[in-house]
Specification:
OB fold (Dihydrolipoamide Acetyltransferase, E2P); Rossmann fold; alpha+beta; 365 residues; 26% helix; 2 domains; six-stranded mixed beta sheet; P-loop_NTPase
Length: 365
């Protein structure tokens, strides 16, 4: 499978702002790379540029040892010559063709013999558990079945590179879970390089070998899912990943929580005045009864329980800390009730610190 290299890639649609800005990204052979970010961040534009459906404005894209798009050198390789397979959010199945004919479509274009085509269609539809639907039309299938047909049509031509643009967004939660497992199996079985576009952090966390987080056309961070979750490079990445989202304490405010943060940071950073905020994930906080004796290695916020929200296997505890709402995740509540005075306690290693420009700061533990 090929390695994909995007170097200083810019995409502009004619306005004052670039849709993608100086993107440097390498997607290695066999990777399952998720492009993650909110709507309008440039992730779909990026995958369409890799596919050749969008021309880049500047920079270069290389797939394997072949340059496929480089405006300065007047190099451009058409989508059908890039040997990529793509699945769109709306699946784009031919409504007048049966399942078998949809899967066979790309093989016909490659002028394979009917015997070889029939064997390939049978093999792929069998692997994706849709062989029994081969004579049905897309309108006669469920969303999950249509998804499998779209994947089968792509896999039938054995592309070197698979590009998936939010393919699960139209499915209900149970089907999404099933298809995530299916995609992981396909990635392992077909030994493919996959680029997967999503705004769903859990899809990225559960599917990807690497995640590229984008915001307003700019690549923010690339790394393994847990690297990005545990060591976000800036406040945007920290706040985008996590449900409930990360809690933040603003250092510039005159509040009890800011005072607690300043006390915690004393001796841990060179210049407290240069710190803009600290962040703590809800699952890093434990809810405890007030205790006048605490370890210096802990960060503590005093507050009051506002509400207790069940989420199935755990509880989300909403607390009031001064005028701010802070959320913690608890596996058990004991006798905790709304109105109780509590302390939210986090180990020092779980506190994220950001400077005045929202960039991550290393601290002494």
């Amino acid at each position: 499978m090929p390695t994909i290299r995007l170097k200083n890639v810019v995409k502009n649609y004619g306005g004052d702002t670039n849709a993608v800005e100086n993107l440097d990204l390498t997607i290695n052979d066999g990777d399952f790379m998720c492009l993650l970010g909110p709507s309008g961040c440039g992730k779909t534009t990026t995958v369409r540029m890799i596919a050749g459906l969008e021309n880049i404005t500047a920079g270069s894209i290389q797939i394997g040892d072949r340059m496929v798009d480089e405006p300065n050198a007047q190099t451009y390789v058409t989508p059908e010559q890039r040997d990529v397979g793509m699945v769109f959010q709306n699946y784009a199945l031919w409504p007048h063709l049966s399942v078998a004919d949809n899967v066979d479509y790309g093989l016909k274009l490659r002028k394979m013999s009917k015997t070889d085509r029939d064997a390939r269609v049978g093999e792929i539809t069998g692997k994706l558990s849709i062989a029994k639907y081969r004579d049905r039309y897309p309108s006669q299938l469920s969303g999950g079945q249509q998804q499998r047909v779209a994947l089968a049509r792509m896999l039938a031509v054995n592309p070197k590179l698979m590009l998936l643009d939010e393919p699960l967004s139209n499915l209900d939660s149970r089907l999404r879970l099933e298809m995530r497992a299916e995609l992981k199996r396909i990635h392992a079985e077909f030994d493919a390089t996959v680029v997967f576009v999503t705004h769903d952090q859990w899809e990225a966390m559960t599917l990807a070998t690497h995640v590229a987080v984008m915001f307003e056309g700019v690549l923010q961070q690339v790394g393994s899912p847990m690297d990005i979750y545990d060591r976000p490079v800036n406040r945007f990445v920290a706040s985008f990943l996590g449900v409930p989202p990360m809690n933040f304490v603003e250092m510039g405010e005159k509040s009890p929580q800011a005072a607690s943060a300043a006390e915690f940071l004393a001796g841990r950073v060179e210049d407290i005045e240069g710190i803009g905020s600290i962040g703590i994930r809800p699952e890093a906080l434990t809810v405890e009864r007030p205790n006048p004796v605490r370890s210096s290695g802990q960060f503590v916020l005093a507050g009051r329980v506002e509400s207790l929200m069940p989420t199935g296997g755990s509880w989300t505890v909403e607390t009031a800390v001064g005028s701010q709402r802070v959320y913690a995740t608890a596996l058990q509540l004991g006798d905790l009730q709304p109105g109780d005075r509590i302390e939210l306690v986090a180990p020092a290693a779980s506190v994220h610190v950001f400077d005045l420009n929202d960039q991550r700061v290393r601290v002494r533990q």
